[in-house]
Amino acid sequence: MIMRKTKVLIIEDDANIQELLRYNLAKEGYQVVSAIEGEDGLKKAQIEKPNLIILDLMLPGMDGLEICRILKTDPGTAGIPIIMVTAKGEESDVVAGLELGADDYMTKPFSPKVLVARIRTCLRRNKQKSIDQSSVLELNNLSIHPGRHEVLADGKPIDLTFTEFKLLHLLASRPGWVFTRYQIVDAIKGEDYIVTDRTVDVQVVGLRKKLGDYGRYIETVRGIGYRFKDLS
């Protein structure tokens, strides 16, 4: 039985869809908060701190991608799972949302039962995350702070995307441990995403470039994947 404290924020401008979602989620025991416009949805996300957000990409005013970007770059809301909902079904929108840190997506029209199942999966995955938000990884002069979503190299901040940060933290948390490309994708995006080896390779190239001299700590294991250099 889901406890009432599990709060879901619905940011959706279609009144019929919003009411349908509210009814089905309330029936499952979720506490539901809703917003029709982008700015109002962002404000409620920041104030209410829901356990999960259902976010329509096509909204009046501020669109869903911009809301996602703001929420995922704010340490206070970065950990809230986001399920994107789009009527367009365009690959570019889905990719853009996932790169900004969204956890899952659905294309309209969709089954409320399927959405509820996706919500359960996202909440379960989020709960199972074992990252200690108070611990900082110190690797020579490279500092990785998951709670602040901050990386410092020689004391200077490195600007990483949500996905780049998760990739770096995953590798650095287990120096010397080899991760396959698909293990990396499962860890930073979840098992439901179909990707190619090239997707991970592109992320690693960008991450190495941003890390400068410290990029050499991310080692390629030919034919398998990547690892963070064991500095012990």
3D architecture notes:
The chain is an alpha/beta fold and 232 residues long. It folds into 2 domains: 7-128, 3-Layer(aba) Sandwich (Rossmann fold), CATH 3.40.50.2300; 137-228, Winged helix-like DNA-binding domain superfamily/Winged helix DNA-binding domain (Arc Repressor Mutant, subunit A, Orthogonal Bundle), CATH 1.10.10.10. The chain has helices spanning 15-27, 38-48, 64-73, 91-99, 112-128, 162-172, 181-189, 197-211; strands spanning 7-11, 31-35, 52-56, 82-86, 104-107, 137-139, 142-145, 150-153, 156-157, 179-180, 218-221, 225-228. A 5-stranded parallel β-sheet has the order 2-1-3-4-5, sandwiched between helices. Strands 6-7-8-9 form a 4-stranded antiparallel β-sheet, with helices on one face. It has a 3-stranded antiparallel β-sheet with strand order 10-12-11. β4 (82-86), α4 (91-99) and β5 form a beta-alpha-beta unit. α6 (162-172) crosses α8 (197-211). The radius of gyration is 19 Å and the shape is elongated. The model has no long low-confidence stretch (mean pLDDT 85).
Can you give keywords for this protein?
232 residues; Rossmann fold; 5-stranded parallel beta sheet; 4-stranded antiparallel beta sheet; 2 domains; Arc Repressor Mutant, subunit A; alpha/beta
Task: Write a short abstract of this structure.
This protein has 8 helices and 12 strands.
